[in-house]
């Protein structure tokens, strides 16, 4: 069983994606699957409050 995704990892996903624009590369660098990376980059099916908060944390 995989360990839970931490808020720090989500921020790292976004930072790495901003660098390389590639889910697969972010997955390789973090040791997570491409689908997990894509899910958290896109924030699909996440509560609006979480999406807003993550956007604020990532963009400053």
Compute the average pLDDT: 87
Number of domains: 1
Terminal Cα span = 33 Å
Helical content (DSSP H or I, runs of 4+): over 70%
Largest sheet: none
Number of DSSP helices?
4
Task: Describe the 3D structure.
By secondary structure, the protein is mainly α. The chain has one domain. It has four helices and no strands. Helix 1 crosses helix 2 and helix 2 packs across helix 3.
Keywords:
mainly alpha; 0% strand; 60 residues
Secondary structure blueprint with pairings:
Layout: H1 7-20, H2 23-30, H3 34-42, H4 48-59
Helix pairs in contact: 1-2, 2-3
Brief synopsis:
By secondary structure, this protein is mainly alpha-helical. The chain is 72% helix and 0% strand. It has helices spanning 7-20, 23-30, 34-42, 48-59.
